[in-house]
């Protein structure tokens, strides 16, 4: 004997079928459907993050940051140039009939030795230049112009060649001043045009 189904149950079944399956709410539904949320999520600020007020008032890098940057760039440049010179030397010293393994070994030895020497030499020069430039700027009340660069070039050349005697120090100072002047005349306009945010 079948039991009669109440009329309220029929109405509930009809309403459920008309409404379709239940839709579950997802807490991140707006993130997945609105592209604006993606842009806001990955839109990072390009301005520097300042922790202290002194950093916001400071103009340019500190002497330690400048020293680290110049020394690192100088060492890397010298190492790359020395490695290229070592590779060229290895190609010149290669003899006919040598095995490939011997040629590779000679190239690696020359690149490492010449590259290490070049990196150390140029790194020391860059460190002396940055240090003397910061000292000159400090005694000129923080001025940053071509006088600092020229004085740093002369001082760097003289200090670097000082172990060779007074005459070598004078010649080194002259060469350093000429190179600093060439960098002021030719290098700085190029940096201001192609890399204005570098701050050198």
TrEMBL record:
Main location: membrane
GO biological process: one example: protein import into mitochondrial matrix
Compartment list: Membrane
MF GO annotations: protein transmembrane transporter activity
Biased composition (Basic and acidic residues): 1-15
Gene Ontology annotations for the cellular component aspect, listed alphabetically: TIM23 mitochondrial import inner membrane translocase complex
Keyword match Cytoplasm: no
Residue ranges of the region described as Disordered: 1-25
TM stretches of this protein: 168-187
Residues in coiled coil: none
Keywords, ordered alphabetically: Membrane, Transmembrane, Transmembrane helix
InterPro entries xref list: Tim23-like
Membrane association type: Multi-pass membrane protein
Protein name in the entry: Mitochondrial import inner membrane translocase subunit TIM23
